[in-house]
Design goal:
single chain; alpha/beta; seven-stranded parallel β-sheet; 31 helices; disordered N terminus; binds adenosine-5'-triphosphate; ATP binding; DEAD/DEAH_box_helicase_dom; hydrolase activity; nucleotide-binding; helicase
């Protein structure tokens, strides 16, 4: 009601507009314009002359000074200048530009100080269904994107609206104009367009243009799109839009109780932190932003509880989320009011070890607290679904992969069969409690699950030669950052020092590491390396396979063939993200050949169906067999042998020392004497694993001096170029040593790379 009155007043001014004056004024202050919500403007009660005291409709009328109103299509904007703009321009309000309001002239930039000028065309008339349009109409009413003018010297306006203005202004000032017309049909607020322009995201990705309008119109969604195709913002943008449309100005919010509007569940901690950062980056371009926090294991729970109390958008891993929800009634009841539940990487989150907690969370969200009427909302009984608990909430489910059965279950095409192994998963899916009986299933990449700019290769090698080939690939394929996936934590533990000994900056990531060490590894991997020659390498288990968006990873190596086709898709998807290109290479041992063929066939099944036989590569569609120069590889062997010996000895000694300490402690507690030699005997057996035990025992027996000697030899080898087939016969009389000395990884002679 108040808003309507504000509008009437604004329209009144519009009729009295002085177009030319405002146009010239707009030119002068265009560099200082700022976006703000309509409620954050300094509306003042209109002083009604006594003679109008009884006039109908004047009660509660408010006015605001120093503000232009322009209309872009169906959207009304309040255009103003910041306190830094010319005071003579600020001090006097001269009316509104009718021409602009009627769309006769393109409006000036809707964004803040020196924000990228957003050019756009009118949203197309053909839009969503009538219901959709109704809902959109509602949203537009709530939203009314506004650009406010801080009347100079009005402290209230300055603090409410421009809290972040200086920072944003500084950042924006560096930007060129950004054309945003491709976003216009989606129907975003001008604030959001400004925020996207700031990120230089000039057009939506396929999943974004398909998913956002659907979510904005209040529907549930199951979204599938290739890795790196922008799924995070496909749910992030409509959630933030909803927040912008329904949130009070910052000043009022400080005093009112906060209630989160969205909960995003992520299967891994790293991904949860990344989503949080991604949404924060988006919101950095808004004049007022939602408070976004992550709730993940491994970090202080008390701090996260405090953050939750003021959070608007919560991103969490199921384990910690459940821990926090189950121990705090206030958190639980606040979360029951969320308007969006997002399940990211749904196929993993609903299936892997997160199962139990995910179930508890869903149950708790829908359970009505005593006296909590919100969840039993019977006022809206337009459909059966509407009366179900949780109906107020939209459910958005995203992943790059959904196996067929899961896809069908999610889309409601299969009957729930509450029996056997599948029982719990199906139960959980039911618990997602979609608002609609058939949530929309949107597949943005039906033919290929793999990113468009990804090249896939395969190297066949002996099972015991993988270390050698790994090293060779890292030297031969020029990369900025490489990510190596293994199937076991022990392999990560071994490969990391193995590559470090070879002077490659390698970092480890697996779930057995402390959370701070995990985050540190990622930070170091992401950091720019001062030695431009050296590319950094992250050795990880599948904990890094989902969702991680680290810039400039141009190579993914599967040291072990992944356990499933979906894992292959997600692992490979850490490169070639957004518009970038990248390479994924499988190291395939003889024992892995059959599962690898199956995997490739599965991943590229749809593409193969559309490809003529002549286009099939040696390994099938999409994956190219790489014939790496075996001679070259053999030149690298001496380095690899030394590095392996050093690594295995060091690890065996560390393990021995740990076991020794543990045994001593245990013996002390039992009050018995500890004799390592005696125990060595007791523990010997000839069964499985005895060979490894024996090797470890031998490695422990290696002296420190021997290790020192190996290190020296390796250092010497690394300081020399690798002679790639240049015959020394032709180098007679040449300083061969001089030619061969050089930086690690350099080659003497022509090297073809991997030919990808
Ligand atoms: N409209 C856009 N224009 C340009 N870049 C974009 C756009 N939307 C998102 N991006 C960028 O694309 C990258 C990948 O986005 P995101 O992490 O959301 O992908 P994803 O589809 O969730 O991938 P995954 O399946 O691996 O989780 C990010 O760096 C993001 O900043």
């Amino acid at each position: 009601m108040a808003l309507d009155k504000k509008r009437k007043r604004s329209e009144g001014y519009g009729k009295r507009g002085k177009a030319s004056a405002v146009r010239s004024k707009r030119q002068k202050i265009s560099a200082m314009k700022r976006v703000a919500s309509v409620d954050s403007l300094a509306w003042k009660q209109v002083e009604i002359p006594e003679m109008f005291d009884d006039a109908e409709g004047f009660y509660g009328l408010e006015e605001v000074e120093g503000v232009d109103v322009v209309r872009e299509g169906n959207t009304v904007k309040f255009v103003a200048a910041t306190a830094e703009s010319d005071s003579s321009e600020d001090s006097e309000f001269e009316g509104f530009d009718d021409a602009a309001a009627e769309g006769a002239e393109p409006p000036s930039a809707p964004a803040g100080p020196a924000a990228p000028a957003i050019s756009g065309k009118e949203p197309e008339a053909s839009g969503p269904s009538s219901e959709g349009r109704r809902e959109k109409g509602k949203r537009d009413k709530q939203k009314v994107p506004a650009t406010a003018q801080a009347a100079k010297g009005d402290p209230e306006l300055e603090t409410n609206v421009f809290a972040q203005a200086t920072d944003i202004a500084e950042a924006d000032a560096e930007k060129d104009d950004v054309a945003m017309s491709e976003w216009v049909p989606i129907g975003l607020s001008s604030q959001m367009l400004t925020a996207l322009a700031r990120l230089k995201f000039t057009k939506p990705t396929a999943i974004q243009s398909q998913a956002i309008p659907h979510v904005l119109n209040g529907h549930d969604l199951i979204g599938k799109a290739a890795t790196g195709s922008g799924k995070t913002l496909a749910f992030g943008i409509p959630i933030v839009e909803n927040w912008l449309a329904t949130t009070q100005p910052a000043g009022d919010r400080a005093t009112s109780k906060r209630q989160p509007i969205a909960l995003v569940l992520s299967p891994t901690r790293e991904l949860a932190h990344q989503i949080t950062d991604h949404l924060k980056q988006l919101c950095a371009g808004l004049s007022t932003s939602p408070y976004i926090c992550s709730v993940t294991g491994g970090l202080a729970v008390q701090k996260q509880q405090r953050q939750l109390e003021k959070a608007d958008i919560v991103i969490g891993t199921p384990g910690r989320m459940w821990e926090v929800m189950s121990t705090s009634n206030s958190v639980l009841s606040a979360l029951r009011g969320i308007r969006f539940l997002v399940v990211d990487e749904a196929d993993r989150l609903l299936q892997d070890g997160h199962f139990k907690e995910a179930e508890e969370i869903l149950k708790a969200l829908d359970r009505s607290a005593p006296g909590d009427e919100k969840n039993d909302d019977s006022s809206d009984n337009s459909s059966d679904q509407a009366t179900a608990p949780g109906h107020h909430r939209q459910t958005l489910v995203f992943s790059a992969t959904f196996n067929k059965a899961l896809q069908q279950k999610l889309a409601g095409k299969a009957r729930y069969n509450l029996m056997g192994e599948a029982e719990s998963l199906e139960y959980l899916l039911k618990r997602l409690n979609f608002r609609e009986a058939q949530p929309k299933f949107l597949d943005a990449n039906p033919v290929s699950q793999m990113a468009e700019n990804l090249k896939e290769g395969l190297i066949q090698c002996g099972d015991l030669e993988k270390d050698l080939y790994l090293y060779a690939v890292l030297l031969l394929q020029p990369t900025r950052r490489a990510l190596v996936f293994t199937n076991s934590i022990n392999t990560v533990r071994r490969l990391t020092p193995f590559l470090q000994n070879l002077n490659l900056p390698a970092f480890a990531l697996h779930s057995d590491m402390e959370q701070k060490a995990r985050l540190r590894s990622i930070e170091r991997f992401k950091a720019d390396n001062p030695d431009k020659q050296a590319s950094s390498v992250l050795i990880a288990t599948d904990v890094a396979a989902r969702g991680l968006d680290i810039p400039s990873i141009d190579l993914v190596i599967h040291y072990h063939v992944p356990r499933s086709a979906d894992d292959y898709v997600h692992r490979s998807g850490r490169t070639a993200r957004a518009a970038n290109s990248g390479v994924s290479i499988l190291l395939c041992g003889p024992k892995e050949a059959v599962p690898t063929q199956r995997l490739i066939a599965k991943v590229h099944a749809a593409a193969a169906a559309n490809t003529s036989r002549s286009k099939l590569t040696s390994s099938g569609v999409g994956v190219q067999t790489i014939d790496i120069d075996r001679r070259l590889v053999s030149h690298l062997r001496p380095r690899v042998v030394l590095s392996k010996k050093i690594t295995e000895t060091t690890l065996a000694k560390e393990k021995g020392a740990k076991e020794d300490t543990w045994m001593k402690q245990a013996a002390k507690e039992l009050g018995v004497e500890y004799d390592p030699d005696e125990l060595e005997h007791v523990g010997s057996w000839k069964g499985r694993g005895s060979g490894k035990k024996q090797r470890e025992k031998e490695a422990r027996a290696v002296t420190k001096d021997e290790v020192k000697q190996w290190r020296w030899e390796l250092k010497e080898l690394l300081s020399r170029r690798v002679n790639n087939g240049v015959s020394e016969k032709y180098l007679a009389g040449v300083d061969v040593d001089g030619l061969l000395s050089g930086a690690r990884g350099s080659f003497l002679g022509v090297v073809e790379g991997l030919g990808l």
